[in-house]
# Entry
Amino acid sequence: MGSVLMEQKSVLCASCDISCSLTAHVDKGRVVKISASRNPLLKDNICMKGVYAPKSFANPNRVLKPLKRVGERGSGKWEEVSWDDAMADIAKRLGKVVDEYGAEALAVSTSEWNTSVENGAGRRFMNHLGSPNWISGVALCAGNTSAVNRMVYGWYPFSDFATTQCILLFGHSPTRHSWTPIYNMIQTAKVRGAKIIVCDPRKSANAEMADHWLPLKVGSDAALMLGMVNVIINENLYDKKFIENWTVGFEALKERVNEYPLERVAELTGLDEESIRSAARTYALAKSAIIPWTPITDQQRNSTSAIRLQCTLRALTGNIDTPGGDVFFEFPPEIVNASAMEMHEVLPQEQKDKQLGSDKHPVFTYRGMEPLKEATKRVWGQPYTNLVTGNYMANPSATFRAMAGEGPYPVKAFFVLGNNTLLSFANMKLIHKGMMNQDLIVVHEHFKTPTAQLADYILPGDSWLERPQIWEGFGWAGVLSTSQKAMEPPGECRSVYAFWRDLAVRMGFEEAFPWETLEDVLDYRLHKTGKSFKQFSEEFEYKLPNLRFRKYEKTGFATPSGKVELYSSVLEGFGFDPLPYFREDPTPDAKFSSKLFTGLRENEFFQTGGRHVPELRKRTPEPLTFINQHEANKWGVRTGEWVEVETKIGSIKMKVEIKEEMPNELVRIPHGWWKPEMEQGIGKLSGAWQFSDAQACPDDDDFLDLEQGIPHLKGIPCCINKIKVNEKELNAG
Ligand SMILES: Nc1nc2c(c(=O)[nH]1)N[C@H]1C(S)=C(S)[C@@H](COP(=O)(O)OP(=O)(O)OC[C@H]3O[C@@H](n4cnc5c(=O)[nH]c(N)nc54)[C@H](O)[C@@H]3O)O[C@H]1N2
Ligand SMILES: Nc1nc2c(c(=O)[nH]1)N[C@H]1C(S)=C(S)[C@@H](COP(=O)(O)OP(=O)(O)OC[C@H]3O[C@@H](n4cnc5c(=O)[nH]c(N)nc54)[C@H](O)[C@@H]3O)O[C@H]1N2
Ligand code: SF4
Ligand SMILES: [Mo]
# Structure
């Protein structure tokens, strides 16, 4: 009865990064329930994290007022201060850092959800201040893939799941409660009769239903694809017209893949030759085919080659910008897009040149994107197109080294906006060292995460139920959606836009932020429609683009040659191998005779978040490592026992769960564990030192991809040590 009377708002969920359209039910000014979208097309896109979001945001541990550190950094002691006092002090201290070390001494770390809601404000601020040192979770997730895709064919395609005849998946295994819309699209395609090819060392649910399952060795995706390309070229299965008219470097590519005969590929991947051949044929002969983006190849030491090979497979089969293929969506024409809002053109070249890591690992930095700038302007209408916000980033590892005082110049102020930096990259000890060496750390958050525990200020952030938003599908997925504000933020929680604007005013560049409120900036972004945000969001929950295929026939591709660069002039210009290759793993210490991967997301939590919601936590109370019985026997451990998973740089504690779907020698460790109920502050960090996977992930040269410098999270040599723990003591500190 009550719910009939309740007000309903259309909202976009940001409890993960995929922005499902949902309905918020509001009673007496508070969201009391979340249900699926009222739009019948979107009704199945909701998971338990979305359902529990109001509970998560109403948690008593949520930070509701600005907190200022008292005592030493990480002492765990805070005092409440007013926003005005906090911002005045932050501006003063940032000014001092900039005066002493230059604007590049400010680094900012953030994540997917945030960059979709801040309307370009963070980069706009940094570009006016003069700092290029922006890092993000997208360096390990889609942002880096978009940069590599742009090097090959000038844009980042999104898959046409709706009509495709074939889906080739690398690891990527969405479930009912993990990226639900993608899961639904794969299931629907399967029921429709699309062929499914799954490359995954583990017998995942997708592998179970696949037409081809290729259980490759962890981290060997690039090798497998070199073999598939070899088959497609040598069996003449490629689209000759497309190759002739629209690509450069085919002959060189052919020569390269001939260095990878199936016999060699079988050895590198652990697969049999016939299964590779047969999967390659199915993919190439399908009337249409997609290779959906996968984070698995974003996080490997051969990441750049693996992503390029995915692009290569699409090109060889002509499945680029075609119905049922991988499609280049345009920026929604109705709005001022986020890339334009960011104003990269105002950051002087000499500051761009200072971007950390761009000398050694240029791919997703300003330097890496520079050779594409003219072509991008010609084809896509503007020189800076920051797809998935991953195209003009500093390198995370290089940034942490600079923060830690290891050069090339000091970084002394660090702002974190909704990212759990300590846990969200490789080499947690280095990140910790870098944070301890800062003059100023500001964290905009909901909770006192391990990262926030090291801050000078924790600023209370609003949530997706408490703010209006435009979503443009990261400039990638071809949708334009809106989210209505369903309730007022509790306490003194504020938006990230409010933070950046306030700081810009105090730092003396108010003219770059003429919009006083978040609502004002949304109205501005929609001004071309002649509608206010309020009107627009009442009319459009979401808006699909006008589908136009093979746009390249009119404009060419946005690369230096105007064609798909199978042989990359851009990488060649930076002194890298212009063709894809496979770099074999270094020989590990004999002690580390298994390999771990981080991932296989938990249904209940998003990344490092969510452990504070009792209803969800009780479903997975502890971090679990998955191994099979063979592996358990090898290490002498049993299900339910506590172990330490150790790599050459660290070890983490977790409980064993035997899963027969895991292959021999492979260990799954979950990402992002800390326990909000445990003791806070330095030395403890709420269990992060004991449970966070970032402790065990190395970031030395052997474990970084050469071109992008992102860490290898899929195949780190490890061992398992049985340990005795008193669970009570363990959970105490
Ligand atoms: N070691 C290691 N690192 C990884 C990965 C891994 O497997 N291992 N995975 C990578 C991947 S795939 C990704 S996508 C990234 C994810 O990196 P992030 O997107 O940074 O992931 P989260 O851990 O969810 O951290 C987000 C933080 O934002 C806060 N937050 C959420 N909503 C809001 C809001 O509205 N306002 C404010 N102010 N704060 C908010 C949450 O409380 C949480 O602490 O991490 C990557 N890094
Ligand atoms: N509930 C929930 N859902 C989420 C998230 C969450 O935190 N919670 N996070 C979201 C985010 S940001 C991301 S990026 C996605 C990640 O989600 P997915 O892309 O589905 O990746 P994982 O869940 O990490 O699953 C990893 C899969 O890859 C396989 N695999 C491991 N190593 C390799 C390898 O080297 N090669 C290949 N081919 N396969 C390998 C594993 O066996 C496993 O099946 O999940 C999203 N969905
Ligand atoms: S999959 Fe779940 S958490 Fe992610 S946006 Fe959809 S409802 Fe929210
Ligand atoms: Mo991700």
User: Anything to note?
Assistant: The mean pLDDT is 96. Residues 141, 295 surround molybdenum atom (ligand 4) (CB under 6 Å). The radius of gyration is 24 Å.
